[in-house]
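# step 3/5: fold
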Amino acid sequence: MDHVSHHQETPDVTFDGGPLDCGNGLLLLIRRHIDPLPSGGVLEVRSTEPTVADDLPAWCRMTQNKLLSVVQVSGTWSFLVRKGGSAAETADVAVQPIPKSQPARANESSLPEPILAPPLPPLAVMGIGSWPRPRWMLEAIHCHISGQLADDAFHDTADDAVRLCVQAQQRAGVDVITDGEQRRDSYASFVGGLLDNCQLIPITDLLPYVDDPAKFESELRALDVPAGEVRHPAVFGKLGRSRPLAVHELEFTRGLTGGPIKVALPGPYLLTRTMWLECVSDRAYDSREALADDIVAVLRAELFHLLAAGATVVQFDEPVLTEVVFGTPQGGRSFMCGALSEKRSQEEELAFASSLVNRVVDGAPRERTAIHICRGNWSRNEAVALAGDYRPLVSLLGELQVGGYFLEACTPRAGELEVLTSLPADRRIGIGVVNQKLDAVESVADIRQRISQAVELFGADRLVLTPDCGFATFADNPIASARTAEAKLAAIVAARNYFR
């Protein structure tokens, strides 16, 4: 764009990026200032870094914001950017403030005591967590994230979506209900919109932070990842939990069922790998270990508040563990579950993950905690997901002080169940008995055969029966339709009833 002598419009907000370039934190700080604006709002970006004049127009095109004009005076650039969309669409919507910093570490003495909850029966059937969102719920999620839909209106809409999801599970006859993660844009990144000093940004904003942006963009396309729709949490200061992550989800769901309820949360290792981005999070934390300390604190507080609100099971999702053992070599980066930060050796990563999970669940009733592991659920294409049996993870699983393991097992990529027989005998084993990525609903006979094999290996009292993973891990990229999801759960129930 050609430079002009002065801007024709007056900005709503002005932000000075100083000498930062787009690959050194500027884009994320721009995102922090432009997101609270209504669509059509105008942001002025000031900069003394010459490369921004080349990089910012490309970012505007990629993110569907409009670069209005550029002014250069004595080595300082001024860019006017209009936020994508129409100002008329959101003229009456109040700008949501960015949460201020709060202490992350919970006072252990202030953690609430767990209350009794409906128990988990043998051979319990449940979903892993996510459920396909109706089209109107997806629209509400997008509008809420962009500031176009206020909290009260968003939750009114989400309540309706949760009711439909719970009713579908009840028709299918499952034993344990989830709310389908209807309020979340994805199973993990949603915390970026709730934690203090954290913000959700499109994954396309992170291209400058990988070693080879063009290669990374190509890999995302090859992996069938909707990069323009997937969002990523970025840390701008010390993390804090001044509002719940999922307690409000549980409280609403409890009004719809008197039976057991499971709540899924992203695990501490997953969040640390996701949030630790050099040149961004290291402005707030000296190391990823320091960041992990605060992640442990907020998850620990959330866990105990969920148990105090009556959750039967709190499940921590740690699918990125399979990326550690089956993914790119040490030092490499991967999209796997959004974990873009580099990793260390396999031994270091597994030990780190084990310590984080155990710190979160320390002191909680073991039987009410669980971990979920799969090999990637962003695409229906089985060929792009990771493959390998659980042998490299068995030792880690045995160290975790959780009461259950909910594991992908139906797909051939997961290997043989016999590998899991050495796990502690006092833990529940959740076995995936249908593949959520397949359109066809598995026959009751086939599911019954899988259950029979698992009963022989682990005993009926230890078994929990699930799909391999969620039906819509990423809201904008569901793996199955709601109709198929209900039919698959109903088929599991029918097969399970043979054993009861």
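# step 4/5: annotate
Confidence is low (pLDDT under 50) at residues 86-103.
# step 5/5: archive (pending)
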